[in-house]
């Protein structure tokens, strides 16, 4: 039964949760803002495409920020209740710590459902749609960015110059290209016409040159090669505006982060044991369960950590939350690295952070329910002791030097 006390605790968690969710998502989005602004201002990308990119990126960001916001909001809410002695009043009224599990468990379950939806449906669809949209933007940037009588270096390793571009922009005339992709053999290409050809299936953009010649000089300047051609194709390696991967590289298959739950399971089933790609798929498959489950783990950890802040403000809850999140993601990255290299089973590497922190959280919750909460600042006396010993050492050294 959701009593008044349970609703009260749930509301205390709700406001910090949405505030933290907005702040953390905005911070992650700020990392892409400069790139998005560059696309819009310098590359001529429309505001509609920029808005689509933001919407496609949001599920991936929310997959990270929802569990983080949940933990910090629980710590802030319980820290405020502890600082105002409301936790003590609840206990004196006969409300046990286990009864507080209902509102916190409800909040954790809601966060779990949201995270699961983002992980199973939102993030794969968003990542795949982002890649397709980046390719479309790249096509537009390739055609819009090239101006006649202007040297263009937007393409990796290439400098492109077009003497004339008709109004309709379907082709270029008087094309001059400096190809420095092979450092030992830089090549100069001259062609009468050039066409931009895109292939949506392989997601590549090709510059097709007509009636020209290539001029190559080796690094020692001892040989000079000329080759005439009627048709010559150059695959354009575009800059990486959003996705962090080269958009002109052929990408016919979905990446692991773009696959649904069933696609990951099917892909792992079709590959042989020991295949690095299979290990990666298994890790990604298990992460679709472990990341949402981390909301429950954080909910369990948040209770003993939150009620232990008797006289501390919200800042300490925020700091403790970031520390726990850092430990969780360090364990996650370590487990993934060990799983991908084959040092441990991929499933074990993916489940390690949830299992470790889950056991720690249950133990701390049991200790807190028995009125024997663990002190999270137990390291402070040790640090103070080390400092006293260091100071004594300095004093002793100074006295010895003085005697000499």
Order of helices and strands: HHHHEEEEEHHHHH
Beta-sheet strand percentage?
A: 5-15%
Strand order within the widest beta sheet: 1-2-3-4-5
Computed structural class: alpha+beta
Helical content band: 55-70%
* Number of self-contained structural domains: 2
Low-confidence stretches: 239-252
How would you sum up the global shape? Answer: elongated
Distance, first to last CA: 78 Å
User: Mean pLDDT across all residues, rounded?
Assistant: 79
Question: Total helix count?
Answer: 9
Number of strands: 5
Biggest sheet record: 5 strands, antiparallel
* CA-based gyration radius: 30 Å
Task: Characterize the structure shown.
The radius of gyration is 30 Å and the shape is elongated. It has a five-stranded antiparallel sheet with strand order 1-2-3-4-5. Helix content is 61%, strand content 13%. A hairpin with a 4-residue loop joins strand 3 (187-199) and strand 4 (204-217). It has 404 residues and is an alpha+beta fold. It folds into two domains: 4-138 and 258-376, no CATH class; 155-235, no CATH class.
Key words describing this protein structure:
404 residues, alpha+beta, 2 domains, 5-stranded antiparallel beta sheet, 9 helices, 5 strands, 13% strand, elongated
Give a concise summary.
By secondary structure, this protein is an alpha+beta fold. It has 9 helices and 5 strands.
Strand and helix map with partners:
Blueprint: H1 4-41, H2 47-83, H3 86-92, H4 101-145, E1 158-164, E2 172-179, E3 187-199, E4 204-217, E5 224-235, H5 261-270, H6 276-307, H7 314-341, H8 346-369, H9 379-403
């Amino acid at each position: 039964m959701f009593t008044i006390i349970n609703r009260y605790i749930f509301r205390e968690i709700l406001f910090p949760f949405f505030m933290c969710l907005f702040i953390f998502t905005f911070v992650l989005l700020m990392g892409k803002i400069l790139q998005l602004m560059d696309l819009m201002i310098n590359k001529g990308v429309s505001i509609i495409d920029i808005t689509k990119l933001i919407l496609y990126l949001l599920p991936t960001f929310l997959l990270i920020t929802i569990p983080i916001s949940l933990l910090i909001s629980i710590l802030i809410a319980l820290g405020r209740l502890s600082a105002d002695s409301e936790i003590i009043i609840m206990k004196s009224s006969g409300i046990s710590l286990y009864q507080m599990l209902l509102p916190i468990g409800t909040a954790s379950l809601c966060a779990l459902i949201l995270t699961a939806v983002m992980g199973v449906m939102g993030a794969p669809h968003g990542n795949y749609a982002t890649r397709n949209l980046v390719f479309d933007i790249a096509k537009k940037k390739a055609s819009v960015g090239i101006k006649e009588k202007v040297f263009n270096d937007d393409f990796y390793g290439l400098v492109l110059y077009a003497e004339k571009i008709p109004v309709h922009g379907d082709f270029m005339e008087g094309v001059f290209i400096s190809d420095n992709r092979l450092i030992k053999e830089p090549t100069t290409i001259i062609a009468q016409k050039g066409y931009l050809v895109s292939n949506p299936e392989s997601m590549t953009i090709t510059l097709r040159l007509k009636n020209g010649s290539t001029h190559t000089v080796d690094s020692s300047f001892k040989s000079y090669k000329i080759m005439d051609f009627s048709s010559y194709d150059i695959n354009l390696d575009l800059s990486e505006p959003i996705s962090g991967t080269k958009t002109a590289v052929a990408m016919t298959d979905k990446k692991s982060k773009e696959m649904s739950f069933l696609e990951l399971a099917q892909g792992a089933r079709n590959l042989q044991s020991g295949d690095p790609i299979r290990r990666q798929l298994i890790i990604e498959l298990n992460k679709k369960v472990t990341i949402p489950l981390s909301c429950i783990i954080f909910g369990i950890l948040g209770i003993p950590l939150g009620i232990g802040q008797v006289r501390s403000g919200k800042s300490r809850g925020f700091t403790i939350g970031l520390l726990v999140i850092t430990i969780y993601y360090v364990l996650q990255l370590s487990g993934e690295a060990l799983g991908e290299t084959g040092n441990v089973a991929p499933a074990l590497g993916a489940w390690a952070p949830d299992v470790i922190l889950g056991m720690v959280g249950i133990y701390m919750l049991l200790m807190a329910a028995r009125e024997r909460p663990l002190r999270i600042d137990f390291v402070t006396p040790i640090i103070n002791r080390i400092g006293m010993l260091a100071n004594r050492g300095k004093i002793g050294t100074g006295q010895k030097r003085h005697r000499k």
